[in-house]
């Protein structure tokens, strides 16, 4: 199985900060990489698909990049409503795995 | 509006069986693959299983292979997960999730989950 190493596991930042989360795959997954946001007590929400495509209705302060094994998720200007846990997820050959998650808090 | 409503979660003893259901509405059900994803209390997300749009292809995480069976009834817009030989580590909130395509691996809609507790 493909392992996804996501870092950091937790992050504290101030409103307006630029926030970056990384995800590394254990083998080449091309661009088969998605990012989700999960708020406490809620189901996950798709933010970015195929590494860099913004899901419809998602604010443009969210972005993703990368291909192969190294991927980055960025919030350009952190807002209070962005407090959540973020997960990367790969779907190469339909055996799907998630990263461990990054818990984002406001400083 | 897309809606996914899971049901069937209960407390079950180790070694027991359970069948989860997911009722789908608001989209053409048989155009899309469907998934089960679980989340143990306080833990991260774990993909469980995928079924293609027509039920012809199924995939499982190693942790459930041979014990869980995914199925769908397109005439009823319903997805199922038959869970056998349950273990304590299967305790989790089980989400039903819609794929963006016939079989891709991207989840664009999720239900609210149904809680399975495996305990004696």
Features:
heterodimer, A: 107 residues, mainly beta, four-stranded antiparallel β-sheet, 11 strands, B: 120 residues, seven-stranded mixed β-sheet, 0% helix
Strand content of chain B: over 45%
Task: List the helices and strands of chain A in order.
Answer: EEEEEEEEEEE
**SS-based class of chain A:** mainly beta
Helix content of chain A: under 10%
Contiguous low-pLDDT stretches of chain B (5 residues minimum) are none
Helix and strand sequence of chain B? EEEEEEEEEEE
Describe the structure.
The complex is a heterodimer of chains A (107) and B (120). With 107 residues, chain A is mainly β. Helix content of chain A is 0%, strand content 50%. Chain A is built from no helices and eleven strands. In chain A, strand 9 and strand 10 form a beta hairpin. Chain A starts with a strand and ends with a strand. Chain B has 120 residues and is mainly β. Chain B is 0% helix and 50% strand. Chain B has no helices and eleven strands. In chain B, the strands form two sheets. In chain B, strands 2, 4, 5, 6, 9, 10 and 11 form a seven-stranded mixed β-sheet that branches. In chain B, strands 1-3-8-7 form a four-stranded antiparallel β-sheet, with no helix packed on it. Chain B starts with a strand and ends with a strand. At the A-B interface, strand 4, strand 5, strand 9 and strand 10 of A face strand 5 and strand 10 of B.
Summarize the structure.
The complex is a heterodimer of chains A (107) and B (120). Chain A is an all-beta fold.
Secondary structure layout plus pairing:
The complex is a heterodimer of chains A (107) and B (120).
Chain A (H helix, E strand, L loop, with lengths): L3 E4 L2 E4 L5 E7 L7 E6 L6 E5 L3 E2 L7 E6 L2 E6 L8 E7 L6 E2 L3 E5 L1
Parallel strand pairs in A: 2-11
Antiparallel strand pairs in A: 1-3, 3-8, 4-5, 4-9, 5-6, 7-8, 9-10, 9-11
Chain B lengths: L2 E5 L3 E2 L5 E8 L8 E6 L5 E7 L6 E3 L7 E6 L4 E6 L8 E8 L7 E4 L3 E5 L2
Parallel strand pairs in B: 2-11
Antiparallel strand pairs in B: 1-3, 3-8, 4-5, 4-9, 5-6, 7-8, 9-10, 9-11
